[in-house]
Task: inverse folding
């Protein structure tokens, strides 16, 4: 798939990363900054995907990286370091939600009743033709804002899977392990997340947003 | 094999990820050719994956990295060298002290330090660097840590600082280490 996989870790970098991890474990703590630098944005994005609040996401990202530093001795090389960091971040974000009793699980369209685990089928509701992505789409702040709002509108179980798989580019297996669910559940939730986002975005990105972009949060312009 | 619309909707995600058997793939492609609605669903789903997979969707708030480092600085214990590291450092110190003493005893020349022996003062203001429109850091051209590759703009380090970019801690490390954390370019 064109542009689908962006691997941040080439073999040489992996070797360098393993060396850095060992040196941090041996007491060269300042190297921790270098170790986490390539992943800072991904850590924040993972936290934001769950919390949907910039301040909370930043706080959780900081907490998660502190925790990663304190427990770096427990990191086992069978998983990628980036995946391990994201797993810690997801856990921290979930704990934050539990603590605040703000368990926001409502989906965009109230369909969650057809299977809490995302096992029910999903029927596309909108067949607007969205064949082309304008190359400048992401250059526009208002479009990025709408993409963020659409993502934030997904139920948490779908948002988590979508963010890990399609934004963080984790594999199905890594996503399943990070979230503590089966690979089959990952695939089912991913399907629903992608289709729900397409339903939300296709009419607008298919053309309507080209001219006017005024709509209030929570309402659709089409 | 012939598939209907429901099967396409159920398998669209696996189809795009390349995780369906070849027979089913062919059947889906055959169906899409004759079904405008399903063709729109597949194309739109593919667009969703592509557009959200763009690195520009992973933006962080301005100053995120600096605040993160301050927080880690506050809570992390300071670096300690390994035993071997200490031994090497101690040996180096003895050698340096010894060489100074030998120099002092064998030479009467004034101690004029070489210009290249001076401590660095940060990133040279006129150094040619690059920065991405959507990035927060500036880099030496060709730095492997450039994440955002969109619209890389050449500029001087002075201009980069003025525009609010921070130096990459990898490719510009040698300047930062010698700058002692002080903003090297003042106006």
Result:
């Amino acid at each position: 798939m064109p542009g689908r996989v962006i691997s941040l870790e080439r073999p040489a970098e992996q070797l360098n990363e393993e060396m850095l991890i060992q040196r941090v474990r041996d007491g060269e703590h300042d190297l921790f900054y270098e170790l986490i630098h390539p992943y800072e944005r991904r850590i924040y994005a993972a936290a934001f995907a769950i919390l949907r609040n910039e301040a909370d996401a930043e706080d959780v990202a900081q907490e998660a990286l502190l925790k990663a530093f304190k427990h770096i001795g427990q990191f086992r090389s069978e998983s990628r370091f980036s995946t391990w960091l994201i797993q810690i971040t997801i856990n921290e974000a979930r704990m934050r939600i539990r603590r605040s009793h703000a368990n926001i699980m409502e989906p965009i369209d109230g369909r969650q009743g057809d299977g809490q685990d995302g096992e029910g089928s999903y029927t596309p509701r909108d067949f607007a033709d969205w064949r082309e992505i304008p190359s400048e789409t992401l250059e526009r702040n208002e479009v990025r804002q709408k993409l963020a709002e659409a993502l934030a509108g997904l139920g948490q179980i779908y948002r988590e899977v979508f963010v890990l798989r399609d934004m963080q580019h984790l594999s199905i297996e890594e996503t399943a392990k990070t979230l503590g669910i089966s690979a089959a559940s990952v695939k089912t939730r991913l399907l629903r997340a992608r289709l729900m986002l397409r339903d939300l975005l296709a009419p607008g990105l298919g053309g309507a947003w080209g001219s006017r972009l005024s709509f209030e949060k929570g309402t659709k312009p089409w | 094999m012939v598939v209907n619309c429901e099967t396409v909707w159920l398998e669209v995600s696996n189809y795009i990820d390349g995780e369906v058997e070849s027979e089913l793939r062919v059947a889906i492609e055959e169906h899409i050719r004759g079904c405008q609605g399903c063709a729109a669903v597949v194309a739109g789903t593919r667009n969703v994956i592509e557009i959200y997979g763009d690195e520009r969707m992973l933006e962080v708030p301005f100053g995120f990295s600096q605040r993160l480092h301050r927080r880690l600085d506050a809570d992390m214990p300071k670096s300690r060298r390994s035993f071997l590291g200490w031994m090497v450092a101690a040996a180096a110190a003895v050698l340096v002290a010894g060489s100074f003493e030998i120099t002092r005893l064998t030479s009467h020349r004034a101690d004029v330090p070489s210009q290249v022996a001076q401590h660095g003062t940060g990133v040279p203001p006129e150094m040619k660097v690059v920065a991405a429109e959507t990035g927060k850091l500036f880099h030496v051209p060709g730095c492997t840590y450039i994440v955002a590759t969109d619209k890389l703009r050449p500029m001087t380090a002075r201009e980069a600082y003025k525009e609010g970019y921070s130096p990459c801690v990898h490719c510009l490390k040698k300047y930062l280490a010698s700058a002692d954390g002080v903003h090297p370019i003042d106006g």
Q: What stands out?
A: Residues 5-53 of chain B form one domain. Chain B is about 50% helix and 10% strand. Residues 108-120, 178-187 of chain B have pLDDT under 50 and may be disordered. Chain B touches chain A through 54 residues (CB under 8 Å).
